[in-house]
Amino acid sequence: MTDSKALPVILFGKLPSVTTPQIEALLPEIDVIHLITSLPSARIELPSLLSLSHQPKPTITHPSSGKGSNTARSPSQQKRAMVVIVGGGFSEEEFEELEGVG
Questions:
Q1: What phi and psi, each to the nearest 5 degrees, are found at residue 60?
Q2: What's the CA gap between 41 and 39, in Å, rounded?
Q3: Is the peptide bond before 56 cis (omega within 30 degrees of 0)?
Q4: At what angle do helices 39-50 and 92-101 cross, to 10 degrees?
Q5: Tens-place pLDDT, residues 21-45
Q6: Residue 62 backbone class (left: φ over 0; alpha: ψ -120 to 50; beta: rest)
Q7: What are phi and psi of 5, to 5 degrees?
Q8: Are 5 and 26 in contact (CB under 8 A)?
Q9: For residue 37, what are the contacts with CB-CB under 8 A and spacing of at least 6?
Q10: Deepest in the core among 5, 7, 24, 79, taking most CB within 10 A?
């Protein structure tokens, strides 16, 4: 279980061998609520996750990666991200596209 004072973040990371230990290493100060592992997933999941006007849609409540602390929370208990972290596995072009998605 994560600390309620932990900073909720969305993490973009392509390599499970890196992201899995990274999620654990960031605790308890940083709570990775949602892990996105590909650009196609980001296009689908990110707009609702960053929307300020409504809660995330039920179809994307859980990340396609299956990872992130929000997977253990009901929709009404899910945290909203305060920060987006992008791992080094994304190219400059992919990073620029990510900027345009949200």
A1: -125, 20
A2: 5
A3: no
A4: 30
A5: 999 999 999 999 999 999 999 988 8
A6: beta
A7: -95, 0
A8: no
A9: 12, 13, 14, 16, 19, 64, 65
A10: 79
Contact 41, 65 (CB under 8 A): yes
pTM: 0.84
| Tens of pLDDT, residues 71-92 | 998 888 888 899 999 988 888 8
Neighbours of 12 (CB within 10 A): 23
Looking up tokens 């998605």 gives 101
Please tell me the total number of residues recorded for the chain in this structure. Answer: 102
> Residue by residue, what is the 3-state secondary structure of 48-82?
HHHCCCCCCCHHHCCCCCCCCHHHHCCHHHCCCCC
